[in-house]
Design a protein that fits this description.
Rossmann fold; alpha+beta; globular
Length: 145
């Protein structure tokens, strides 16, 4: 896909783009450089979801948005019952049974400095967004004596 994207950018004369291949847990970018991170399919496959989300947060500017499409356990009840029966032969159904649920995603995002979790479910898929909290956010302290 990187080759195709590189060829496409060259054919269309798009010069302000860079493609990189790396592990999500060790992104080859400096801190606080991206206004948005978009990730599709597979967040539930990382051995350490917290580590992957923390690394995404590291390269994002404060206030930047994360958008992710991944697979969740939830789905319409009928779809969930079918998936349990066909999981052995249907890779997507099996993947959904192994995925996390919506509450887990919210917890992981909170633990890694994201806020404003919002999502939409599309069967087995969830499309969610969250905002990276400010890097040095100070809350006022009020002391009463």
């Amino acid at each position: 896909m990187l080759e195709k994207a590189t060829d496409y950018a060259r054919e269309k004369g798009i010069g302000n783009i860079c493609f990189a291949r790396s592990r999500a847990e060790r992104l080859p970018f400096p801190d606080d450089v991206f206004d948005r991170v978009i990730y599709s399919r597979g967040l539930h496959k990382f051995p350490d979801t917290i580590e992957a989300l923390s690394e995404m947060a590291r390269v994002m500017k404060g206030g930047a948005w994360l958008s992710v499409l991944t697979v969740v356990k939830q789905g319409p009840p009928t779809l969930k019952m079918i998936s349990e029966r066909v999981a052995a032969s249907n890779p997507l159904a099996k993947e959904a049974l192994e995925a996390f649920d919506v509450k887990e995603i919210d917890k992981y995002l909170s633990q890694t400095g994201f806020r404003g979790f919002a999502y939409t479910l599309y069967g087995y898929f969830i499309l969610f967004h969250a905002e990276k909290g400010e890097k040095y956010r100070c809350l006022p302290l009020i002391f009463r004596f």
